[in-house]
Each structure stands twice: as structure tokens, then as C-alpha cells.
Amino acid sequence: MKISFLLHNAYGIGGTITTTFNLARALADRHDVEIISALRHRERPNLTPDPRVRLRPLVDLRYEKNDPRHLTPATVFPSSEYRYRQYSALTDERIGEALASLDADVVVGTRPGLNVHLALQAPERTVRVGQEHLTLDNHPPRLRNALRRAYPRLDAITPVTEADARAYRRKMRLPGVRVQALPNSVPAPALPPADGRERVVLAAGRLVPVKRFDLLIEAFAAVAAERPDWKLRIYGKGEEQERLRALIDRLGLYNNVFLMGAVTPMEAEWVKGSIGAATSNFEPFGMTIVEAMRCGLPVVSTDCAYGPGEIIAPGEDGRLVPVGDRDALAGALLDLVRDDGLRRRMGRTALDNSRRYAPDRVVAQAERLFEELLAARSERRPVSRGTDHALVSGGYAARDTVLVAASSVVRTVRKARP
What we know:
Blueprint: E1 2-9, H1 15-27, E2 32-40, E3 54-60, H2 61-64, H3 89-100, E4 106-109, H4 112-121, E5 127-132, H5 141-150, E6 156-159, H6 162-171, E7 178-179, E8 200-204, H7 213-226, E9 231-235, H8 241-250, E10 257-261, H9 267-270, E11 275-278, H10 287-294, E12 299-302, H11 308-311, E13 318-321, H12 326-338, H13 340-353, H14 359-379, H15 385-393, H16 403-416
Parallel strand pairs: 1-2, 1-4, 2-3, 4-5, 5-6, 6-7, 8-9, 8-11, 9-10, 11-12, 12-13
């Protein structure tokens, strides 16, 4: 198969980028794979793509950020999408051209706005799969309405959790669109797993309010008070850095808690610890949880929607605590800090259980899905092109003043189709 992924910015850092690179690398063992990056802002990606996977950027912000078309609002990418301000008439044009000339059997979008592009502009002969790395319930109402209008033209939607797949089936009217959970994949680390001997708790992620690293630092104060030889290392960067540093100083934890900055890849750091921690108020999946478990660490996590409860088996490979409960979090950490045997047993179980997220297992699920969708597509009559026009002029972007421009973009794409 020829498989194309459409990604927001392959040159950045984030869970969607990581899992797309992981899946593309694994698929490249048997398929022709490319990653199309809507945006580019640097010479080389932060992550190293597999040499067998082609990387094709569309808009290079180093040279084109002041292009008049990039200063004009997008009309295809929905205005209610979180990344809307980074898209423009130029991205509409380049994405449309790339999709119109696509010769892939399967094209996979990786965020809602890009999935709308697939729905409206990908060739009718190509299977269109919209990945959902966020969650339906967390989308604002205007975005959900835009997706209801565009998503019926997709062949499948693949949320990363069963909980989100159930939400799509229950709340969206998508006749004929297959909804199937497809988890993120994490490869086995190249290093030996952690052995549970180090007196270190590790956490990683963007330093933003939803991740609640402040809660983790406050909970770790109880650990440091009882076991001052234990350390907490937090990896990542973001807007909360100075506030977290001030909290560490205020609690007198400067000898126990360390903000380590962003590190890629993280596996060399995970194996230096004995316990992983995740304290988010909300987590669509939980890549760092799986990464830690793949390195042999039990993970203490808040039981937030959606991912942690599907990843962690409480009492076997980690612990789940109520969201925002500092005392419960401190108690769960202390249970593992105090009991060397329990910590090591849970770490071994975490290593075993996390193998279900190995790329070869996730790829097997993806391949079956793609093959079944291709077979189903070959049995169906193509949707008429008039449906494209009706959908766009029906106003999925909810902005009457730009609908004529949106229709023009899609008509241009149609003319370019082979």
C-alpha cells in the first residue's frame, strides 16, 4: 500500500508527531509511506524520521510567513479548530494541491482541521482516515458541528481510546463511517529497562496548567519529608516553568525537585528512574505513561479522562488516584517508595503489559483496518462531486463571508485532480 500521513508540523515536538513517526516507521517495513507536513519552521525535525519514510513540507515558515496569502485567513481549515490562527489561504492552497495530486491508497489526517481537508479535498479513489488525538467531548460546539458536516465523507475515524470511540458512535451522526480505536504506539527502548533501584520519580510533558505539575510537586513534598534521599525530575518546557520553579523554592524542595527541560528522546531518562508520575486533569491518551512503562517503570497517575484508565491496571503495573487529590497522590507515591519489592514487581509487570502498545501490534491493527476499508471502498460507488460543492457551500466553517472563497478553493482542487 501507499500510505500518506498529513501532519500539522513534523518539525515540532509533541505526542501526535511522535506517534505518527513511530507508526510511519513501522509501516515502512512493508509499505510505501510518506509524511506530509503542512508547516515547517526549521531545517531538520526534532525527531529523526526513518530514512524509508519521505517527509514533504508544504509551507516553509522560514521564508513564507510574510507571504500575502499566509496573512489571509484560511477558508477550508475550520475557524473553530485550535490551530486555526496558524493556517491561511496559503496552507489551504498547498494542502489542496498536495491532496489533489495524491496517488496514495490511504491518507491519514492527524487533527480535526486536517481531517476536514481530507474529507473535502482528498481524491475519491483514496481511503480517508481521520485520526483523533484529542477527544470529541473536549472539542467546542462549533468545531463539533463543523466535523458533523465534513466527517460523513471520511471512511473511518480512529480515536486513540475506546472511551472516545464510544463517544463518537453515541454522539455523532456518521452513517457508513467506521469508528475504531487505534492507540498510539511506543517502540521498545534500545536501553535495558529500569531495575527499580534508583531513588528517582520521573514525569514528562508540556509545562502547562492542565498537566498539573504543581500538584505533583506539592505531593512530592510529603515524599521528600519522609525520604529526603528521593528526587523528582520533571522533563519538558512551557508557560508554567517559572511558576513551578517558584513553587519549588517556596516549598524548600530545591534539593529534591528538578526541572530538567525538554529532552528527546526520553528513553535514556526514563530508565534512570524507578517510578513514573502523570498528574493531568485531562489526558486524551497518555504517551508519557506508556513510555515510562515501556522502560520498566510503574506509573502513578490521576484517573482522568480518557487514557490513563485504559493503560494502567491499578495494583498491577501502577496506581490511579482521583484527579486533583494531592494527598492520594502523595500516598500512592509513598507506597511505592517504601516498598522496594512492590515497586520492582510492578515495574516488571508494567514492562510486560506495555508491549500491547508496541508498533508491530498497533501496525497490525492499522493494516487490517486499511485493508478492510480499501476492500469496502472498491465495492462502493464514488460519492458525486456535487456533494463536495454542497458541503462547502453549506457552510461548515460557519462564516458566510468566506464561503465563496472556500468553494473556490475546492473547485480549484477538483480541476487539478487527475
